[in-house]
Amino acid sequence: MRLYFRYLSILFKSQLQYRTSFWLLTVGQFFVPFSVFAGLYFMFDRFGQLREWSFFETALCYAIIHMAFALSECFVRGFDAFSGLISRGDFDRLLVRPRSTALQVLGSQFEFTRFGRLLQGIVVLAWALYKLPIEWDAAKAATLVLMILGGVLIFAGIYVLFATLCFWTVQGLEIANIFTDGGREMAQYPLNIYQKWVTLFFTFIIPFACVNYLPLLYLLGRADGDPVRYMLQPLAGILFLLPCLLVWRIGVRHYRSTGS
Amino acid sequence: MRAYLSVWKLRFINGMQYRTAAVAGIATQLFFGLIFIMVYVAFYGQGSSHTNFPLPDLVSYVWLQQIFLSFIMLWFRDNEIFALITGGNIAYELCRPCGLYPFWFAKLVGQRLSSAVLRCFPILIIVFFLPQPYRLSPPPSPAAFALFVLALLIGLVLVVSVSMLIYISVFWTLSPTGSTLMISVAGEFFAGMVIPVPLMPVWLQRVSDFLPFRWSADFPFRVYSGQIPASDALWGIAAQLAWIAVVVGFGQWSMRRALRQVVVQGG
């Protein structure tokens, strides 16, 4: 763990060396999802509401998934950019060091400019929370934090899974975008507006619903039944990440260097 | 002219090699198309009175966007030219016995066209047989279809000429990240990539009317579904051509200026 924070601070300093570029990118990252949010706003402007969901409820949904996405892009970037490590043959160097490979890959890259995106998520979150009549207590606040963390874990799991595939394919796969970008685009709306098969897939295979839609019902006071069941849903993120890491270890064992 | 045609052809053949990438792209685009349509269906499903843009038109709008993504995205994996400028290899390009502007232009058109050709037919076949309401409906008349193809191809030229401006701007900024990111985000928004232009508030539609982006994407797609009738479509094509004349003229002028003061970093 100490090692992880060492990696973190070193890469942070190295990225700050290019100061102008760093700030420009951060500001850019703030505005990229801005157009998506503007789209969301204009749709509600025209249609009033989406099924039984109001604009601010959807905005809450949007903010949570985008914050989770920004955090995962910042801290799990190493796995996202893993195909480069493989095709350059740099992975060999990681293997000879006496530390776990997952930790080293994790520490190989961070994208701190994604804080711009995170900031945008926070702004939307604050706006939505300010406008929504939620009665807050400790349990709900904890659920909110768990939702974001669970989301990060799921995105991390997807990155790890597709990084593992690189052991066999060498190249990164564009299809991973379905689950990261696609998952983000999809989960920014409440999940019950989609067709059954989409909902089922993203509840039981990749549990986006567990970190977003289901606990959201509890936050908004729409859940019926035991609240604890809804609160603990985001832990599904861990359930998703663990097998991914297992697959990763299998992948490492099968690794053959490209030799370059 | 023959030289540019063969550059175009080479790029086209080069692009056709990436078949696995195309398969992955097809899956991605089908998925995104379905998700977008589901969201719109949910919005429309509440007994709406917003009849200025009926659902079947919207569905074909979304599918055409996905199919011809490489025609309309301002941002299209071509870091090669950036690398040329920032890396100094531009010197080689300048040695070639042909104009730099048409040379890159032909290259970019070929790249986009090959990517679209690889992807469009499988997606087209699939989306024509999807169950309602996801099915892509055929255009209402042969005339609408002919106008659509014409508008789409002219739109391709327009989008390439706009993206040329982005490349030329790198001569001055030397760093392609910041400014191009902003331009492409704004451009894609005003081209109706985030939400279709007819669903924007009226004041925003006015704004997009005065920008070139809408004419390359939103306009041909609405000609396809017959939402823009044939007589208006001809006016639209005239607007496209006018934009091309302006943007290409400006691009060539600024490229000449950029090349006059270009400094090749040795190395």
Automatic annotation (TrEMBL), chain A:
<keyword id="KW-0472">Membrane</keyword>
<feature type="transmembrane region" description="Helical">
    <location>
        <begin position="21"/>
        <end position="44"/>
    </location>
</feature>
<keyword id="KW-1133">Transmembrane helix</keyword>
<keyword id="KW-0812">Transmembrane</keyword>
<dbReference type="Pfam" id="PF06182">
    <property type="entry name" value="ABC2_membrane_6"/>
</dbReference>
<protein>
    <submittedName>
        <fullName>ABC-2 family transporter protein</fullName>
    </submittedName>
</protein>
<feature type="transmembrane region" description="Helical">
    <location>
        <begin position="197"/>
        <end position="220"/>
    </location>
</feature>
<feature type="transmembrane region" description="Helical">
    <location>
        <begin position="144"/>
        <end position="170"/>
    </location>
</feature>
<feature type="transmembrane region" description="Helical">
    <location>
        <begin position="232"/>
        <end position="251"/>
    </location>
</feature>
<dbReference type="InterPro" id="IPR010390">
    <property type="entry name" value="ABC-2_transporter-like"/>
</dbReference>
TrEMBL record, chain B:
<keyword id="KW-1133">Transmembrane helix</keyword>
<keyword id="KW-0472">Membrane</keyword>
<feature type="transmembrane region" description="Helical">
    <location>
        <begin position="143"/>
        <end position="168"/>
    </location>
</feature>
<feature type="transmembrane region" description="Helical">
    <location>
        <begin position="180"/>
        <end position="204"/>
    </location>
</feature>
<feature type="transmembrane region" description="Helical">
    <location>
        <begin position="233"/>
        <end position="251"/>
    </location>
</feature>
<feature type="transmembrane region" description="Helical">
    <location>
        <begin position="58"/>
        <end position="76"/>
    </location>
</feature>
<feature type="transmembrane region" description="Helical">
    <location>
        <begin position="113"/>
        <end position="131"/>
    </location>
</feature>
<protein>
    <submittedName>
        <fullName>ABC transporter permease</fullName>
    </submittedName>
</protein>
<keyword id="KW-0812">Transmembrane</keyword>
<feature type="transmembrane region" description="Helical">
    <location>
        <begin position="21"/>
        <end position="43"/>
    </location>
</feature>
